[in-house]
Amino acid sequence: MSIELIIAAVVALVVGIVIGRFLLGLVLQQQHKDAKLKAESVLKEAELQAENIKKDKLAEGKDQLAKFKAEYEADANKKKGILQSNEAKLKQNEVRLKQIEEKLKQKEVALKKMQDDLTTKVIEIDKAKETVTIQKELVTQKLAEVEGLQKEQITILERVSSLKAEEAKEQLIATIQEEAQARASAQVKQIVEEAKLTATKEAKKIVINTIQRTATEHAIENCVSVFNLESDELKGKIIGREGRNIRALEAATGVEIIVDDTPEAIIISGFDPVRREIARLSLHRLVADGRIHPARIEEIVAKVTKSLEEEIVEIGERTVIELGIHSLHPELIRMVGRMRFRSSYGQNLLHHSKEVARLCATMAAELGLNAKLAKRAGLLHDIGKVWHEEHELPHALLGMELAQKYKENPEVCNAIGAHHDEIEMTSLISPIIQACDAISGSRPGARREMLESYIQRLKDLETLATSFKGVSKCYAIQAGRELRVIVDAENVNDKRAGQLSFDISQKIEKEMQYPGQIKVTVIREMRSVAYAK
Predict the structure, then answer these.
(1) Distance CA 278, CA 284 (A)
(2) Which of 119, 195, 427, 436 is most buried (CB neighbours < 10 A)?
(3) Given this model, what pLDDT does residue 448 score?
(4) How does pLDDT run across 211-228, given as a tens digit for each residue?
């Protein structure tokens, strides 16, 4: 029984395996068919896509071909136009060459004619020379005859007057000289007496009145401004992350912001005082507001710049009203206001110009000239220093051009241009402007130096010059702007005197500090003394 069951089980297993394989084959056959159908559909889709891509590429190729063809045709047309224009130019040049050839031919004909004319003139000149020679001979004969007559007349006069011609001439000349000397001496004596009575009195009056009526303030301007802070913590805010705030402030104002170890202070450095003032006011507003970032910095700087421009105009208007100057061009008024923020060797330019204007008015009034015109020229004499653009001209000539541009009086323009001798003076006001400018700028203490340092600098100059061999005396004059060196004529010749002036100037440049320039003048004088006993 168990064997039959085993056999039946084996048969059933074998039948199950056969049926399973048959079913598996059917399934695999069906999957193969499905895969084949799917592959065919994929191939058809790929073929369609390839056909579409081929059509697109062909269309793009046709478009590009048409584009290239149009560009080629345009380029060809352009080259064709250039060729045509070149041909036209060549034709024009040929026409011009023909015209030039014709002109040259005409000039050749004219030159030939001129040569013929010159030949005829040479012949005429030769004939004229012969005529002149004959006339000279005749003139010589006539002169000989005249001299003979003169000698006869002189002989007759000597016989009548019992004096020779030379003696008569000497007596006449002596008489005329005596009369002329007497009249000249009387006139010179009268002029000297009048000058003694009036010159000293008038000169003292002019100087005293000028000094008495002039009062000035002195402001020392440097190239740096100091901005004070409440605490050092604000330095970090002003610098900003990775320095973006300070870079934005420097770019907007055109100055350099120096943040160092100085407690509760920031240094603003720049050659332009207006820019430094803009930076200082902008920092003040930014610190007071507390919001410090690049956009805010640009906004504040723009506002401060606008307000400062308005303030400059107000300063110029107040100045001209204070000095009583009328009808001044608005641009010149703005330049006068800008003088407030400019200095020259530590002397504020606006104060200097106002001082010069008052001095000029005083001197012109005392000399009987137009005081208002002199005051106007004195105020405007340095406007060339505040022109906002760089210029190659000296400030005097630039100021003269600006005054001419804004229709100032010709005498004022000449005074501005001539106050440093760059042009010739054509009016009496010009030397007054020059003198008053020197008075205001050269007096001790006007330009940054205290009296002690000023005197010490003059002593150093004289000591330096006397250290050279052959120098007998030296004097520092014109507020230390010129050094007069007197040498011993026996020990220093002319060549050595020229070399000595150069050596002294070089030593001054190396060893001394001074504003502007120093003129070194070496004087060599030979004196011969003898006594009559």
Answers:
(1) 10
(2) 436
(3) 47
(4) 555 433 333 345 677 777
pLDDT of residue 214: 47
Give pLDDT tens digits for 84-97: 888 888 888 888 88
At 397, list the tokens.
């000539």
CA-to-CA separations, 396 to 150, 232, 234, in angstroms, rounded: 66, 46, 45
Q: What is the pLDDT of residue 160?
A: 61
DSSP class of 325: -
The greatest distance separating any two alpha carbons of the chain, rounded to the nearest whole angstrom, comes to 213
In order of 44, 126, 398, the CA distances from 52 in angstroms are 12, 108, 78
At how many degrees (to 10) do helices 294-323 and 349-366 cross?
10
- Mean pLDDT computed over every residue of the chain: 79
Query: Cα(353)–Cα(381) distance, rounded to whole angstroms?
Result: 7
CA dihedral angle for residue 283, residue 284, residue 289, residue 295, rounded to 10 degrees: -20
3-state secondary structure 250-303: HHHHCCEEECCCCCCEEEEECCCHHHHHHHHHHHHHHHHHCCCCHHHHHHHHHH
Determine the Cα–Cα distance for residues 278 and 307; give it in Å rounded to an integer: 9
Structure-token match 């006139």, residue found: 187
Amino acid at 290: G
Band (16; pLDDT cuts 50, 70, 90): confident
Phi/psi for 234 (5° steps) reads: -70, -20
- 195 has a pLDDT exceeding 80: no
